[in-house]
Input
Amino acid sequence: MNIKQLTVIILLLLRSLITYSQHVEFKEENFPHNKQLLKKAIGNYERGNKYYGQGFKYYEKALDSYLKAFDFNPNHALLNYQIGNIYYALNDKLQAAVYLEKAIALDPSHKETALFQLAESYHLSGQFNKAIQKYREVVLLAQRDLDKAKKKDKMALLADIRLCNLRIQQCENGLALAKDTLFVVYENLGKKVNSKYPDYTAVVNKDETLLIFTSRRL
Output
């Protein structure tokens, strides 16, 4: 294989990657040979939007319609964001991360609305390194907007920064706890938590806001 042939192959590969990473609208010019399937996909997308707009109670119906539209056109940025947002609301953070990440890749204008959800999705699905990276991106965006923000908005941005820094610390704690086997001493925490009866197998959730254990209280 000569250099010219290799160059052509590289250019074709790059072109395919660029095409994959672009937002694709539900329009006839994008699907000239699939007009019937396009019409059906648009119907599913619009049906999904109708359910989505009716609130959480209808999210599962919206998701069903959106996924049918996604099967036809997986490169629609807003569709990926909406699917990710539904999975996030339904507490499937692992799936949420997949679609939110893709929404941002397809259309960076979704970054500011989707980035914190993406960070939390990685966080709560145990992907701590990815979560830390995304939380830091949220902090950078907030810091960028601080200088031009009004007083009320500035307070909200500072609150976002504090929250992200807390989440980063939680993720770092998660990484540290997962890294090494620890020698653990069980200690009764007093009447507000424990009883005089056996309390077993205490665990905390991923963001350290909930303590769960079993108890043999009478």
Observations:
- The radius of gyration is 23 Å.
